[in-house]
Amino acid sequence: MIIKAKKSLGQNFLVDKNIIEKISSSLNINSQLNLIEIGPGYGSLTNSLIKKKPAQILVIEKDSNMAEFLNKKFNNQIKIINDDILKIPIQKYIKPKTIIFGNLPYNISTKILTNFIKFINKENLIKYFVFMFQKEVADRIIAKENSKNYGRLSVLVDWKMNVKKVFDINPECFKPKPKVKSSLLIFEPKKKYFELKKVKTLEHITNIFFHRRRKIIKSPMKILFKNYLDVSEELNLDLNLRPQNLDTDTYLKICYCYEQIYLNNLST
Fold first, then answer.
1. Which of 44, 113, 146, 147 has the CA that lies 20 to 30 A from 65?
2. How far is residue 224's CA from residue 254's CA, in Å, rounded to a whole number?
C-alpha cells in the first residue's frame, strides 16, 4: 500500500534509518513510560520506539488513509487516533510519565507547540517533548535575549520549558525532500515557573513588544500602560532598550503589572 505525501497536510516523511534510531535513542525509554507520537506517517519512528518496549504507544494521525495503513502495519501494538492534533482534547490521553514525539508539519508546528505550553501546569504528567521543526523555527525557539532570532516564541517557550537542541537533519533524510534543514529539540517542562492569571497576558504583551521590535520599548510601554513611567521605574526598565534586549523574567514582570491593572479586560 503506497500512500503519497499530502502537501496540504505538510507531510514530509522521515526515511533515514540512522536519524530515526538517533531520535528514538535521544532519551532513555523504558517500560515505565507512555509515548505519544504526533504525525507518525509510515510509522518508521513508531517502529523504532516499539523496540524500546514502553508501556504504551499512542499515535495521532490526521490522514485517514495513513491511519488505516498504520492499523494494518502495527495491529494491536499501538493505539491510533485518527484526528487533528489541533482539535482533540489531548489532555485526556496523557498518562503519568508521558513523552511526546513529533515530526511536526511545518505549517502548524508553532501552533502545536504553543497549545502544549498553554495547558502545562505544575502537576504536569509530561516528562519530555521530542519535536522536530524547520531549522529556522528551531533557531527562534532556542534564541536568547540580545540575539536576532529572539522573539515572542522564544519568550513563550522559555516561560515553562527548558529546551535543548539535539542535532540538525538534512533535507535528504525525508521523502519528499523539503527545501530546508530541520532540527530536533527536546523540551522539559519546568517544575517552577512564574504563575500568570491568564496565558493571554503573555501573548498580548509579547505581541505588542515584538510587533515593534525595532523601536525602543518606550513605545510599547506607552501603549500598554497609561502610567508607563511609573511602571518602568518600578521595574527598573531602561526605556531606550529594544524588545530583544529584555529577558523572559522581565516580560513576566511586565505581565504581572499589567494583570494587576487590566486583568478584567483580558479574555480567557
1. 113
2. 10
The answer for residues whose C-beta is within 8 angstroms of residue 132's C-beta and 6 or more apart is 14, 23, 102, 103, 104, 169, 182, 183, 184, 185
Strands 13-14 and 98-103: unpaired
- Domains annotated for the chain, with CATH where assigned, are 7-189 (3.40.50.150), 199-265 (1.10.8.100)
Q: What is the DSSP letter of 177?
A: P
Give SS3 for 19.
helix
Sheet strands (E) in 18-90: 34-38, 56-60, 79-81
- Reported pTM: 0.91
> Could you read off the pLDDT tens digit of each residue along the chain, which spans 268 residues?
555 545 544 457 899 999 999 999 999 999 999 999 999 989 999 999 999 999 999 999 999 989 999 999 998 999 999 999 999 998 889 999 999 999 988 889 999 999 999 888 878 899 999 999 999 999 999 999 999 999 999 999 999 999 999 999 999 999 888 889 999 999 999 999 999 999 899 999 999 999 988 899 999 999 999 999 999 999 999 999 999 999 999 999 999 999 998 875 554 4
